[in-house]
Amino acid sequence: MAGRSRIWTEVDFAAPGKQVSYLHLPYSVTRSAYGTIAIPVAVIAKGEGPTVLLMAGNHGDEYEGQVTLTKLIRKLEPDDVRGRVIVLPAANLPAALAGARVSPLDGGNLNRSFPGDPDGGPTAQIAHYIDSVLLPMCSVWLDLHSGGSSLDYIPFASIHLSGDPALDERALQALRAFGSPLSMVWAFFDEPRMATGSAHKHKLVYIGSELGGTGSVNPEGVRVCEEGVIRCLAHMGVLQNQAKFAVPAAPRIRLTELAGREYYVYAPDAGLFEPACRLGDTVREGQIAGHVHFVDDPAREAVPVYFRRDGLLVCKRHFGRCERGDCLAHLCTDYGG
Ligand SMILES: [Zn+2]
């Protein structure tokens, strides 16, 4: 997108040391004619080295990454670093403060807004700033997601295949360094408006995650995230003082993939979904995933919903009620298996 961002900041991204400040997105409304949305940002830098962008709050109701990065900003000091760490702990701040996936200001889903628009609403402007100002400074981007309000996930970190074998190999090495016991390769991808699309355009190593969900904070997801971020920074050579963070070595990971749309299960009808399986179950093609019940028409038979492939149940819908077309679950399979 042509045009310069109107987002401004007191932060000097070229300066060494530790700066904890704000990105100011002009937002003129009745209660504040010359106001800005103050999006928190931290820069911790010392000496020559790579730049890593750590980001959470791409979706506002995905909390494990927000907890991890808020804590890290307080703990990480310039002497711990060689290079530069840029931290956005609540990238779509209006969504994060609302505890919502999308922004209450414009309905914007940041992870469907890339590469953004400097003349668009707040969400598009945030995407544009990340794409046009932050990403050109970086070689690695950790974009920490979870399942949000509507989904529940077994915690994992992930990469998206880019089509560039050399970049994918670097990403896979970073994923192994992150070391979430379950790890995922998204081999199925048809949404260039996501962050990963911008990451691959800029030839960045992009690590994503799904660290829990249900609109709450999963303590196991926070642990996986905190340890993974530290191990990843050390792997990149940015973290010089790993002992300070007392993180164990990466465990042996189970590397899985999501190979296509047929690994998803969608609601065939609106109603109340009764799942037949639990997260972590290994399921078979043709197995019943659950039933949609019609509490307003109890004489009507429940509609069965089937898995269309064999796999590991890694994600399920959290809410009981569903609309036709809602994602009820998805599977993964062993990578290259
Ligand atoms: Zn997300």
Describe this structure in words.
This protein folds into 2 domains: 8-258, Zn peptidases (Aminopeptidase, 3-Layer(aba) Sandwich), CATH 3.40.630; 263-334, RNA polymerase II/Efflux pump adaptor protein, barrel-sandwich hybrid domain (OB fold (Dihydrolipoamide Acetyltransferase, E2P), Beta Barrel). A hairpin with a 7-residue loop joins strand 1 (8-9) and strand 2. It is built from 6 helices and 19 strands. It is α+β, with helices and mostly antiparallel strands and 337 residues long. The strands form 2 sheets. It has a 15-stranded mixed sheet that branches. A 4-stranded antiparallel sheet has the order 16-15-13-18, with no helix packed on it. The structure holds zinc ion (ZN). Zinc ion binds next to loops.
Order of helices and strands: EEEEHEHHEEEHEHEHEEEEEEEEE
The share of residues in helices is 10-25%
Task: Return the domain count.
Answer: 2
Mean pLDDT: 97
In the CATH scheme, what's the topology name of the largest domain? Aminopeptidase
The total count of helices amounts to 6
Q: CATH homologous superfamily of the largest domain - what is it?
A: Zn peptidases
Give start-end ranges of low-pLDDT stretches.
Answer: none
Structural shape: globular
Secondary structure layout plus pairing:
Layout: E1 8-9, E2 17-26, E3 36-46, E4 51-56, H1 64-75, E5 83-88, H2 93-98, H3 122-134, E6 140-144, E7 151-153, E8 156-160, H4 165-178, E9 182-186, H5 195-201, E10 205-210, H6 219-235, E11 254-258, E12 264-266, E13 271-275, E14 282-283, E15 288-293, E16 303-306, E17 311-317, E18 321-322, E19 327-334
Parallel strand pairs: 4-5, 4-6, 6-10, 8-9, 9-11
Antiparallel strand pairs: 1-2, 2-3, 3-5, 7-17, 8-10, 11-19, 12-19, 13-15, 13-18, 14-17, 15-16, 17-19
Helix pairs in contact: 1-6, 4-6
Bound molecules: zinc ion (ZN).
Zinc ion binds at residues 58-59, 62, 111, 145, 148.
